[in-house]
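Tokens in:
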């Protein structure tokens, strides 16, 4: 069963479809921890372990995070005891979740990364080439050009 599905609001339809498929087909609950993320939230996470207390949890600033463009989602399988606990014991459930998610073409898993593995993280493959990221980046650059011209 899929838990916290409301957190998929603003997330790319491909990731939503993969997440719903996982929630329906897997024999354990799937929890949506976070989908689309504000730039402020991303900056807060990036500061963690750098200028704020805690461990480093991301290498992505707001301008370099697919979450800020609705192109990523963080999911957790239910723990082996059936509860939701990000520090819990999952057995091979992350791998089963990843296998299901990646069965939808164009979905990439943070657990496949070589550095700072991010097992809860799923994103649109090659997200930087996706239209929503490109249009947002163009709008930011165009806005900066307008501001510079006005000064």
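Residues out:
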């Amino acid at each position: 069963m899929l838990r916290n599905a409301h957190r998929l609001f603003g997330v790319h339809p491909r990731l939503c479809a993969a997440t719903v498929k996982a929630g329906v087909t897997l024999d354990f609950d799937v929890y949506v921890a976070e989908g689309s993320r504000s730039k402020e939230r991303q900056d807060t996470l990036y500061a963690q372990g750098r200028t704020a207390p805690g461990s480093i949890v991301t290498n992505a600033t707001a301008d370099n995070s697919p979450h800020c463009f609705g192109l990523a989602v963080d999911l957790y399988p239910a723990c082996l005891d059936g509860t939701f606990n990000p520090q819990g014991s999952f057995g091979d459930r992350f791998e089963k979740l990843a296998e299901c998610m990646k069965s939808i073409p164009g979905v990439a898993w943070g657990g496949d990364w070589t550095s700072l593995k991010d097992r809860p993280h799923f994103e649109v493959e090659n997200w930087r080439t996706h239209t929503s990221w490109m249009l947002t980046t163009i709008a930011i650059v165009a806005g900066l050009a307008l501001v510079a011209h006005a000064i």
